[in-house]
Amino acid sequence: MSSTRAALRGTIVALLSYVVFIALFIVQSQLSDPSPVIGWVLLVVSIGSFTMFWPVALAGALAGWLLCRWSCQADPWDWLLNMPRITARAANLSINVAALIVLLNCAAGLLLMRVHP
How far apart are alpha carbons 66 and 58 in whole angstroms? Predict the structure, then answer.
């Protein structure tokens, strides 16, 4: 497969997933607050689609191109196996920092829910 065709397929997949996201947003907004006027939802969807179309399309194209480039190699895993490894101490530190960030985020969310019920 050519790189251009892979990028086009990636763009199509990304845009279809965005369309599914928009459909789910509309369904959720109508189920949570049913109203006869759907104008506000359509305004949000149209502005969001206008501003997010190109970033979503570019991300999909880049992902498709990179996957094609990676899969077309003779041994796609060779570069990964030959990468330098990190020490166990550095890996444990990274895991602990990530866990701390998650805990702080949860604590902030709980505090905000407590302040504004």
Answer: 12
Please identify which residue in the block is written with the tokens 């149209």: 46
Name, in order, each residue with C-beta under 8 angstroms of 62's C-beta and a sequence gap of 6 or more. Answer: 7, 10
Identity of the residue numbered 42:
L
The shares of helix, strand and coil residues in the chain, as percent rounded to the nearest 5, are 80, 0, 20
Paired tokens of 117: 């019920």
Q: For the beta carbon of residue 21, count every other beta carbon within 10 angstroms.
A: 13
C-alpha span between 77 and 71 (Å, rounded) = 9
pLDDT in tens, 13-36: 888 888 888 888 778 777 777 665
Mean pLDDT, contiguous 10-residue spans, the chain (117 residues): 85 88 80 69 79 87 88 77 87 96 90 72
Q: How far is Cα of residue 41 from the mean position of the Cα atoms in its chain?
A: 22
- Tokens 């969807």, located at residue: 45
